[in-house]
Give the backbone structure.
Amino acid sequence: MQFDTWVEFVDMGGHGLYVWLSFAIAAGIIIINVMLPWINQKKLIGSLQRKFQREGDLK
Amino acid sequence: MNMQKKQLMPKWFYQMASPKWCYKITGKLLPLFSCTGLALLLLGTVWALLYAPEDYQQGNSFRIIYIHVPSAILAQSIYVTMALAGAVGIIWKMKIADMVAYACAPVGASMAFLALITGAIWGKPTWGSWWVWDARLTSMLILLFLYFGVMALYAAMGKPSRAARATAILSLVGLVNIPIIKYSVEWWNTLHQPATFSLTEKPAMPVQMWLPLLVMVLGFYCFFATAMMLRLRNEILSREKRTNWVKELVTKV
Amino acid sequence: MMRVFWAELSRDLLLAFRHKGDFLNPLIFFLMVAVLFPLGVSPAADFLAQIAPGVLWVSALLATLLSLDNLFKSDFDDGTLEQLLLSPESTYMIALAKACAHWITTGLPLALMAPLLAVMLFLPAQAIVTLVISLLIGTATLSLVGAIASALTVGLKKGGVLISLLVIPLYIPVLIFGASAVQSAVDGLPVTAYLAILGAMFALSLVLAPFAIAASLRVSVSS
């Protein structure tokens, strides 16, 4: 452990803003990169299901 | 006739060319990479923030290295992956390789962006300004421009097969250029601002510092594999939507 | 092989000569951009002398960029390009001849006009020879690399801005060494190292770029 108290940990020796900002942006970018294709997949499969259903009904 | 032709590459390479097989195998690999990636990233973050010792010159702002360096490494290796996948797509006319190259571009661009923004944030406590024309940051900025070029070309080209070949050529030209750009930017940098100390070049990093870095780099690679496979699978589904296997797969669920 | 090269080159030069605008426009553009700097920044002689190497090189680069849009356009529109690619002749040589013609109609006149602008921007006299030589070698590389992007975008309706987007990152090394060569000539330092690197980049692009141009043309024509 490098830090004794929570306050020290958040403050990071005065550099807290920079460190926490960097890690937050990184987390944001990683989550966006995983969530967007995941949401798109759900949408895509949904639309394909509807499409095949329609085609099935026509037959 | 074709069967007797000697195969240049191992069997899995040719199996990979089948979208159906590729969709199946990435479906199996996906949980593996996403779970490993998540575990490594969490472990690396906790280790980096809590246990890694602080730098004697930069203090705690040094901890930004654990984001900056992995994203910079990843931005470069994703570009190489994209260009090589493009080359495979041209040489073997493999649709999957085209799709891999397509799936790489946005992930790589976001990693280059992350490396730049963390570099800028790091610059503030280290150099006292948000942006310094440091050699590494400048070449990362140019790499981001290269990604923008590839993505813009994709967006402008209509037909996927044509877009894939065009961007493959562009990214190969970019690949040849990357070392030249790096070298020239370093030359230019030493010319204009001699001996400012570089962010990441340390004489020798102790084990307690680079071990969490290694964990983060591996975690970022797993993240890339996850994001790329997710995009790839979407691309396979949307391009193969007229085939029977997609129909079976979708209606079964 | 060489016959194709000369035939294509002389045809392109003849065409460029007939349409004088094609090769006058980049020159006028070069002049105008260079004039913007004293107007926009400061007309003080010592200040201009300081920024002149960079300004001249950036202006020349932009002028080359501007002319890339038309490199293959007319041949693409009237179907000549398709015929050229269908012919049994070497596409490598055709691509090389096209890039070479582009350099003769833009890079060469730009380099020859540069001393005039150098005087207007108070570039010290000892740097003018280096400026011309670095522009001669550098613009040849710019033409070869730019032709790749031009070939990739020739089939698109809105290729203009896209070309700049694709090409500017690839132009940066040439800009760095070109401007540095002129800068060190201003400072009275040796310039051969810079010119040698510019030459090496030219040699590399001379060997590799025509392959990329030919492949890009095939993609663009195949639609």
The two ends of chain C are 28 Å apart (CA to CA). The longest helix of chain C spans residues 91-120.
